[in-house]
Design a protein that fits this description.
By secondary structure, the chain is mainly alpha-helical. Among the domains are: about 210 residues, Serine Threonine Protein Phosphatase 5, Tetratricopeptide repeat; about 60 residues, no CATH class. Helix content is about 40%, strand content about 5%. The protein has 17 helices and ten strands. It has a two-stranded antiparallel ribbon. Strands 2-3 form a two-stranded antiparallel ribbon. The protein is globular. The two termini are about 15 Å apart.
Length: about 500
């Protein structure tokens, strides 16, 4: 494996090494004493724990905490999964939406470099902050932040940020570095490990957080975590961790055949204790109180803008088969669907947007409007309570896990019907539909119900069999070219027709 020989700038791998990173080991960073003093201050460490959560959230839904107006890699994944569509040049939408698919352009000077660069850099920035919090607590003892309870409360925040960042790295990249608060990266420089090892590390972190949070009854303020004041307790944090642990396993396969290697019984056990329907209590959504200042979701606000990103006709065709699965240059009539969400969550808005010369198949007459209250370009943009993780997502993961592990098909059907019948007003599915029919119903629900929430579209779509992703779609991201150049490694990438075997 490639061994990390250098220390880098604050963003990127260097942030996970030391907050005081510099460009090589022979240079002394003059800020290092100030950083050490800051990490000896209880209030500064609390603040760092809080900011690590914001950094994680903004990396997930807005591609970083710096308001850079980027949505990489979510809309790259959404258009390549044929759930969203768009042909504007930003967010990696245009060239990665071409048909037939082409390889992802992994170049340090390329226009789509942010697709890999942004999540890599900002996830590691989050991990660096979380590691520093955990190191400070480990060095200073249980009462460091005022009391053992107060210390544990902020420790669990940092544990969450750390685990959640590695979850996304394991889903997104083929390989990555894993560094925790226990590593000395100078004495033992970290090595690149495959995505399976990153996943396993994330699972260890989730298990640690689940065990710790099960013992406490804290309430987190809005300044601690992006849910509205009083909405998050340590019991709910425990349930969020269980759902995200289930996601870590369930969304990891890069190809349908790899689904057989998932421990689905374990997925079902985690999801049963998660935020959805199960043994842990009433379901709840993880909802973020946007303030247009510290907390907002570009994922929802751009995703529900009628003039930017549209819904792929493949999804509309699933609700109304009279609509062609690809836009062909002719605006079909609105028509009707037995699914109530056809009108409640989607809006028919012809003509399509964007340049037809870039491919009329990238156009669409529909846009997602379920969260239009927060959509950009209007007075209420970036405000309101916007969901990040729906109870429905946890329910559908549990349903899939039950089906694939030989569990109760009727329980799986009941979980699917919560959104299918509850919001969609569709006829219920049942055990009589069999495993294959129920898995198809799950992929339908995910297409319709989960858009513009957790940003996981490509990660569950790449493993489905009923409507598989297009041949040549990048199933994962490479280490960004700029990082590879720094490491002295050859540039590589994924995607392109004929290259699907690379997705291992």
């Amino acid at each position: 494996m490639m061994r990390l020989k250098k220390r880098y700038s604050l963003l990127g791998v260097g942030a996970l090494l030391f907050t005081s990173a510099c460009n090589n080991l022979d240079v002394t960073n003059p800020n290092q004493p100030d950083i050490r003093r800051a990490l000896s201050s209880p209030e500064d460490v609390k603040s760092l724990a809080q900011s690590s959560v914001r950094s994680w959230y903004m990396t997930t839904v807005s591609a970083g905490p710096d308001d850079n107006g980027d949505l990489a890699p979510y809309h790259f994944g959404c258009v390549t999964a044929d759930v969203c569509t768009g042909n504007f040049g930003n967010f990696g939408m245009r060239f990665n939406n071409l048909e037939p698919r082409i390889p992802y352009g992994n170049s340090s000077s390329g226009g789509d470099r942010s697709v890999a660069e942004t999540p890599w850099n900002y996830n590691y920035g989050t991990i660096g902050a979380a590691n520093d919090v955990l190191r400070a607590i480990k060095s200073n003892g249980a009462d460091f932040l005022g009391s053992s309870d107060e210390t544990e409360k902020y420790k669990e925040e940092a544990q969450f940020s750390q685990a959640a960042s590695y979850l996304y790295l394991s889903m997104e990249f083929d390989q990555a570095f894993v560094v925790t608060e226990d590593n000395d990266p100078v004495a033992n420089p970290p090595t690149l490990v495959p995505h399976t090892a990153v996943r396993d590390s994330a699972m260890r972190m989730w298990n640690d957080l689940i065990a710790a949070s099960a013992q406490h009854s804290y309430t987190y303020a809005l300044t601690d975590f992006p849910m509205p004041d009083g909405a998050l307790t340590s019991q709910r944090l425990n349930r969020i961790a269980n759902t995200m642990a289930a996601m870590t396993l369930a969304y990891h396969p890069r190809r349908p055949a790899q689904s057989a290697s998932v421990d689905w019984a374990k997925v079902a056990a985690y999801a049963d204790k998660g935020i959805g329907t199960g043994s842990a209590g009433a379901p709840f959504d993880v909802v973020v109180q946007e303030d247009r200042n510290q907390w907002w979701s570009y994922l929802a606000s751009y995703g529900d803008r009628q003039d930017w990103i549209r819904i792929d006709h493949r999804v509309i065709n699933r609700m109304n088969p009279a609509v062609p699965p690809k836009y062909n240059g002719t605006d079909p009539p609105l028509g009707s669907s037995p699914d109530a969400r056809y009108l409640s969550d989607y809006t028919y808005k012809p003509p399509p947007i964007g340049d037809p010369g870039r491919g009329i198949y990238m156009q669409s007459d529909w846009y997602h409007s379920r969260y239009k209250f927060t959509a950009g370009g209007q007075p209420g943009a970036y405000t309101g309570n916007v969901p990040y993780l729906l109870a429905a997502e946890s329910d559908l993961i549990r349903a899939e896990a039950l089906i694939r592990s030989g569990g109760s098909l009727q329980t799986a059907a009941d979980l699917i019907n919560i959104s299918r019948v509850g919001r969609g007003k569709l006829a219920p599915v049942s055990a009589a539909d069999g495993a294959s029919g129920l898995l198809d119903a799950i992929s339908y629900e995910r297409d319709i119900e989960l858009t513009n929430t957790s940003g996981t579209t490509l990660y569950w779509r790449r493993a489905v069999t009923d409507q598989p992703i297009q041949a040549g779609t990048p199933c994962q991201l490479p280490i960004p070219a700029k990082e590879l150049e720094t490491l002295g490694m050859p540039i590589y990438t994924f995607g392109g027709v004929g290259n699907d075997a690379a997705c291992q």
